[in-house]
């Protein structure tokens, strides 16, 4: 990759350019608050183009979902694909302790995402002028896409939760800031033995009780992402992007 995206000047810290493997998307790497983010997007993307966050699941890292960018082939936009802030294993990370469903971990990770959202939504030095944000994530990343997307003070245009859930609806949905009209897509596998259908159905119901209108789609898959489920996500995101 021989270009640095035009937002990298906003990021304090180490920045370098990664040379991708053949057939893979090029990206820029930055470190914010000691954590790595992969950035991608066309060099000529409009300055106010939307920013799509892609959040990985438990025990993975930013590279795990990075191929989604090429597979979705969305209209020109920016992508932010961060490592989660909690070490889990060798170069793998978590957003929260899954065994305890740690609320404090979720809140700390949500606050970390808020910081990233503020950094990457900023357009130059224009006060009050921001890029719209779209939050997407898988498993724990899906949990955090809902946590951050529903409660961020800035402009969030859509939320995708793949194989995720809301564990604490009374807290996550206590005072949400996202408008009730925000598009929300919930994707789940009918053979998922990690995030059960009961968790997802309770999440859909909690969103509806809060006044939101989530779209719920199930696929014949386990805890993962298939070509069919990603096609559904792509179609949803293209509709969200068409609104901008």
Structural overview:
By secondary structure, the protein is of the alpha/beta class. The protein has one domain (48-242): Alpha/Beta hydrolase fold, catalytic domain (Rossmann fold, 3-Layer(aba) Sandwich), CATH 3.40.50. The chain is 30% helix and 23% strand. It has 7 helices and 11 strands. It has helices spanning 62-65, 68-72, 103-121, 140-151, 169-172, 197-209, 227-242, and strands spanning 15-18, 27-32, 35-40, 51-55, 78-82, 86-89, 92-94, 133-138, 156-162, 184-189, 215-219. It has a 9-stranded mixed sheet with strand order 1-2-3-5-4-8-9-10-11, with helices on both faces. Strand 2 (27-32) and strand 3 (35-40) form a beta hairpin. The radius of gyration is 17 Å and the shape is globular. 41% of the residues are buried. The model is unreliable at 1-24 (pLDDT under 50).
The average pLDDT value, as a whole number, equals 89
Percent strand equals 15-25%
* Top-tier CATH class: Alpha Beta
Q: Largest sheet, if any?
A: 9 strands, mixed
**Tally of structural domains:** 1
Shape: globular
Task: Show the helix and strand layout.
Layout: E1 15-18, E2 27-32, E3 35-40, E4 51-55, H1 62-65, H2 68-72, E5 78-82, E6 86-89, E7 92-94, H3 103-121, E8 133-138, H4 140-151, E9 156-162, H5 169-172, E10 184-189, H6 197-209, E11 215-219, H7 227-242
Parallel strand pairs: 4-5, 4-8, 8-9, 9-10, 10-11
Antiparallel strand pairs: 1-2, 2-3, 3-5, 6-7
């Amino acid at each position: 990759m021989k270009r640095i995206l035009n937002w990298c000047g906003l990021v304090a810290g180490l920045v370098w350019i990664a040379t991708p493997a053949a057939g893979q998307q090029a990206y820029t790497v930055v470190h914010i608050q000691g954590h790595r983010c992969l950035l991608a997007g066309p060099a000529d993307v409009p300055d106010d183009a939307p920013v799509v966050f892609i959040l990985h699941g438990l025990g993975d890292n930013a590279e795990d979902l990075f191929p989604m960018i090429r597979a979705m082939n969305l209209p020109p936009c920016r992508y932010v694909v961060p490592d989660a802030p909690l070490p889990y294993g060798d170069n793998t990370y978590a957003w929260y302790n899954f065994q305890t469903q740690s609320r404090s971990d979720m809140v700390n990770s949500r606050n970390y995402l808020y910081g990233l959202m503020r950094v990457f939504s900023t357009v130059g030095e224009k006060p009050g002028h921001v890029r719209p944000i779209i939050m997407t994530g898988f498993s724990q990343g899906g949990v955090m896409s809902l946590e951050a997307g529903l409660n961020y003070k800035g402009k969030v245009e859509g939320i995708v939760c793949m194989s995720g859930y809301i564990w604490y609806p009374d807290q996550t949905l206590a005072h949400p800031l996202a408008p009730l009209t925000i598009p929300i897509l919930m994707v789940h596998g009918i053979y998922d033995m990690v995030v059960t259908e009961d968790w997802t159905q309770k999440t859909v119901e909690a969103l509806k009780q809060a006044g939101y209108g989530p779209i719920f789609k199930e696929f014949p898959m386990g805890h993962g992402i298939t070509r069919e489920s990603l096609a559904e996500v792509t179609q949803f995101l293209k509709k969200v992007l068409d609104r901008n």
